[in-house]
Design a protein that fits this description.
The protein is mostly helical. It has four helices and no strands.
């Protein structure tokens, strides 16, 4: 777990934007918080897993994929902004994100 600072918020945003720009072959400037991951970028669930692994390593997180899955069932992530917000919750709360009902 970590305290989410403005620096971490910017790092997470940058990593997510760069990741989707590269994986989906779009300009980073064409991606914003309201960009729909599936409809606009043709993203898929494997991309979520890749990003989670990137953040687990970068921030030394201890979170189980099943916890993220349970959270995501109640709090579906469809846009880049929702994904960034969920990732910040994971960094800050790790396995305790399950106690959050809405992102």
């Amino acid at each position: 777990m970590a305290i989410v600072t403005n620096q971490i918020k910017e790092e997470v945003r940058q990593i997510v934007l760069e990741f989707f720009a590269e994986e989906c072959e779009v300009e980073m400037s064409d991606i914003n918080d309201s960009t729909h991951i599936f409809d606009d970028l043709d993203g898929d669930s494997l991309m979520f897993l890749e990003l989670i692994e990137i953040f687990k390593k970068k921030y030394n997180l201890n979170i189980e994929l099943k916890t993220i899955g349970k959270f995501n069932v109640k709090n579906p992530v469809r846009t880049i902004g929702e994904l960034i917000h969920m990732q910040l919750l994971i960094i800050e709360h790790e396995n305790n994100i399950i106690s959050f009902s809405k992102i």
